């Protein structure tokens, strides 16, 4: 089997022409007199490249299967007639190959001559000048003259397609090598491109001969990267020219954690190129990481600290020292008047591990309480709880690459092609190879439309019925004798298993009994359970459609039960895999952001763990858990909680029941917001501290597979400070001394206090590229797969948990007959603060309410109508899209635009164990309306007022200069 990533970690900066072979059998051959040994199935081209014999090539590149169209890579092989293409010829035992002789040189020159005779000779003014394989190959084969003129038919006037905001397709430069078409198919899995026509008339076409923007292209950039000429070029390269140096760093958007080369000209970022050496992405990207970086230099960036006494006043621009001392004195006086517990802080999953660690340290050590929480509260806190209870560790069990060994993939409440696109592409690749797919989701997600998909099943369950569904799947496994008895006997706690077995076998958990609840036919559930249990390797991937429910934690445990019962834990191809939303959700949890856990998931009540932190930090720590975010809001409204420090989160937009959140923020005496923009939360702030983007700082992010990746500074921080430096200053101003010269020293401190990070250091990260925790004496190079031998639980055994289905109290009735569920789309990210300030707006510039034609017809609603959506919490207005992707009775929207007020209608309902909000189930009614909601009118008024305050502050500062 060929694989597009290289398990042998060949030099990622070199193109070996064809993918690596995974065969364990080796063959020995001789190339230009050099003897070499390669895995069977390796191409002659790759075998040569591995010993630095670089055969000219045009249509081959090492992340695509060999195609054999250009013939430039011809070689001679002893005992074989003709000149076979080295890219499509596998290396064989005893082969003798010549890559250079007069005959081959002449053949290659002739081929290049034909290409060049139909190619614009504008090398000096071409954007790819200096980075063009056609140019390189003309040089490599020694082409000196072109005997054919440009008279006669040619493609030199072929049109340009400039529809995509990020790249241009200049057809006049196309050599029809098909690398773009194959990249779109093999790497991205979208199949947006074809070669249209035959012979001389062949040309690359997007969609049904549409523009790139109108086609199904998702702007991942794989074709641009694959193109050996300037035919497909980034617009930034056309505008700015070729970069001069690069720095490898990590995407700051989603939990895939793709590695990129930030290619620079001085301090200016020219383009982001996915790094082939990236262990999470192997050289692939999505539109966000690849192109949507313009927000970092957007005019809206906050560049100066600002303070004010009240949110009804204009801002005053001040220096760092004044802002920090203003914030510190406010915090101190509030604590003096209202007590130690009256203040707290929120860390961000968008910030680095080091920054997050420092914020929770500031709260515990300098504020003197445990009132620290993180945005993971509202997304994956049930993952932390549920997996800890069953598997013993609050993290996913696999690497992304593990999916390439899966035979059955169960996706629950996740939409990987939109929310985790690079992993979604890898998943699609495995599905095209024949793994079966089961999707449990109210919507028909795009994964189900994967071209060349094999067996697949959609279980379109009703929102709120996850636990009933997973119980039914396990019921079938147990009652039909499909469980893995060996695994259960060896690896699981017997008492808990016996109790769970009795519970799950009860007829009330059967697919037939829960059909009414889930809305999915019992036959389909039985079939899915059999497919999952019988496949040699079955893996579960889940997202916020699992966690953001009143039974989010129960569902996570139900998933772990299913994996344990079928023995799908502890090896490649299986496992329980939470797909984390933001870039550093895993990291922010690991770093001790939750009120009850110190870094490394050590409970604050554990005297030994607490003692270690007390010794290291030189303070005594509170042994009682502090407030969670929803408790902070309630306490603020009750007047007990008076000040909040929020780093890098926009709780006013992202948290549920916006009007409740706004009331809490308005009740605070002091709100300190540290962010790169005046976000919705900052509109309620008294201190605004400029944040630094991921391009402006050093640190690490930890992705959904527990992979710690380096974030490297590529340009100076716009306001002069990296985020961690601001937290250090605030701690010092509060009288708690903090002193670090570089984030590497913060990581050293983390390693000394969190056992699963004990072996992590910047030196080791730079050497390995990345490390998956646990990384310690037991696993010095990290742990790609967890729980291989035992679980970090009593006696090392996995624990089955009883997962009783308890329906949510948020139910549809006559007044609110529809269920609203929320999600994300590919081009926007979370609250949209970053992506809304990029050309990604071309794909999605407003949140839309999707509803089924049946529900639309009943209410006389057509596409594009304005709809008033009313829930028990509030009312907002969105435009309608009528879509058969929805099931009748269920409506769907995104929350990327603040003025939409999607969270005005979500409620305070939350997960019983963790308070994770129930974003995925809100009972609503919709009707046609003609004007925005009252909240939306207030929102617009406040937006203008707060932006005016900002503009006035800049004007005053400018006039003072
Ligand atoms: S940008 Fe990606 S999706 Fe679009 S055509 Fe290129 S490879 Fe296909
Ligand atoms: S656009 Fe580029 S990659 Fe695609 S066929 Fe033309 S030259 Fe090859
Ligand atoms: S998949 Fe996620 S991490 Fe990768 S480029 Fe896209 S947004 Fe960034
Ligand atoms: S590189 Fe081998 S045929 Fe094109």
TrEMBL record:
Sorted alphabetically, which keywords does the UniProt record give?
Answer: 2Fe-2S, 4Fe-4S, Iron, Iron-sulfur, Metal-binding, Oxidoreductase, Repeat
Q: Which residues form the 4Fe-4S His(Cys)3-ligated-type domain?
A: 103-142
Give a Pfam family name: Fer4_7
Tell me the ranges covered by the 4Fe-4S Mo/W bis-MGD-type domain, including all copies. 244-300
Q: Which CDD domains match?
A: fer2, MopB_CT_Fdh-Nap-like, MopB_Formate-Dh-H
| Origin: domain of life | Bacteria
NCBIfam families reported in the protein's UniProt record: Fdh-alpha
Name of the protein described by the UniProt record: Formate dehydrogenase subunit alpha
Q: State the family named in the UniProt similarity comment for this chain.
A: In the C-terminal section; belongs to the prokaryotic molybdopterin-containing oxidoreductase family.
Q: What residues does the 2Fe-2S ferredoxin-type domain cover? A: 25-103
The residue ranges of the 4Fe-4S ferredoxin-type domain are: 165-196, 209-237
InterPro entries with a match to the protein in the record: 2Fe-2S_ferredoxin-like_sf (IPR036010), 2Fe-2S_ferredoxin-type (IPR001041), 4Fe4S_Fe-S-bd (IPR017896), 4Fe4S_Fe_S_CS (IPR017900), Asp_de-COase-like_dom_sf (IPR009010), Formate_Dh-H_N (IPR041924), Formate_DH_asu (IPR006478), MoPterin_dinucl-bd_dom (IPR006657)
